[in-house]
Amino acid sequence: MGPGGEAFRDGALAPGDADAPLIPDWARRWQATLFDHGWMIPGYPPELGGRHATPAQTLVYQEELARRGVLRSVHFPGYAIVAPSLLEFGDEAQRAMAPAAIRGDVVWCIGMSEPDAGSDLAALRTRAVLDGDTFVVNGQKVWTSYAMVAERCFCYVRTDPGAQRHRGISVLIIDMDSAGIEVRPLRQLSGAAEFAEVFFTDVAVPAANLVGQLDEGWRVTMGSLAHERGGLWVQSVANVEAAVAELVTMARRRDLVDDAGVRRRLGELYGQAASLRALGYKGFAGFAQGSSAPEHSYLKLATSELGQAVYELGMELLGPDGVVVDPEAGEEGGRWARGFVTSLASTIAGGTSEVQRNIIAERVLGLPRG
Questions:
Q1: What are phi and psi of 288, to 5 degrees?
Q2: In angstroms, what CA-CA distances link 356 with 154, 237, 343, 344?
Q3: Which of 20, 107, 135, 219 is exposed most, by the fewest CB atoms within 10 A?
């Protein structure tokens, strides 16, 4: 990587600071540099931050970044969800917004989750009423990443309350400085505030900001999540594999690998991680040919739950030392304790495991509801 790359990696992987900016200046510069040299999304053309790479070349690139622990961006909504959705469903003016979203020049947040509609997007209640050439939006979003610094919101709203759950949903581009928007940061136990509540009170949005067709936002949703998971699975699997490798190293350091039970459990975790990578390759092969990749929906569920299992075993093997987070007294500075707590959130963020199972059962396996 060279000295510059090593310095970037060290900065990207340093422990978090509650008062640090959500999107540091170095991260903005790095993302812009990748875009300008065709490495942000290699499969795209140069004007979209790519170099016309083949799907296989793109996968190799993503795997290498994941292996080295190098991030392309610290705010994924713009390049991973918004830009692909605008390119697929947007009109000419909206597609013109994609380069800035990919380069990181414009920060986006995603208005999906609501107090009564977390992972179940079809239950959303935020209303948008068309009045002439303007939508009037009222409602609330929650757990909205980057809302405190975002310039635009890719917002899912209900435009036909009388339609069935998955119908009557539309997507609007909302400027975050619009009158009637209030953003309230949600501070976590760590002291950081990475999420926020967003309140919309009679927010006027031009009808031209509708993405796709009216009442057909569910199609945009499925496309958005497919784009997100079509690439993020590589990082998720790499994270799990790295955690398993570190768990084996820790077990050896503590002379636990001679225990047959420990070896069996380590072997099971290793095998599961390897099988998830193979499944990811299978889904990627279909996705690269333009077909759907239901494997990637499962990978979100499986990697988050396997990550929990890895850190749970780590805490078990550490025994009483596992709860010590003092850098001078704890094992690896409390790395396993923090990882265990963080892993619990992974089965909630981006879609809870329970909802993921329902989606897979109904929309992939075709099983009946109830």
A1: -65, -25
A2: 22, 17, 17, 16
A3: 20
How crowded is residue 5: how many other Cβ atoms within 10 Å of its Cβ? 11
Adjacent-strand bridge partners of 199: 140, 182
Helix (H, G, I), strand (E, B) or coil at 196: strand
Measured CA to CA, the distance from residue 39 to residue 53 in angstroms comes to 10
C-alpha pair distances (Å), 280 with each of 55, 65, 222: 13, 16, 18
Q: What is the pLDDT of residues 282-315, one digit of tens each?
A: 888 877 776 667 777 788 889 999 999 999 999 9
Give the pairing of strands 152-158 and 108-111: parallel
Beta-carbon contacts of 273 under 8 Å, excluding residues fewer than 6 positions away, are 237, 240, 241, 244, 306
Task: Give the amino acid at 256.
Answer: L
Question: In 3D, which of 35, 59, 58, 61 has the Cα closest to residue 46?
Answer: 35
Q: Report the C-alpha gap between 148 and 176 in whole angstroms.
A: 9
For each of the domains in the chain, give its residue range(s) and CATH number, in order of start.
Answer: 2-74 (no CATH), 108-214 (2.40.110.10), 219-364 (1.20.140.10)
Please state the pTM of the whole predicted model: 0.82
Looking at residue 8, what is its pLDDT?
A: 43
Residues tagged active-site: 228
**Does residue 310 sit in helix, strand or coil?**
helix
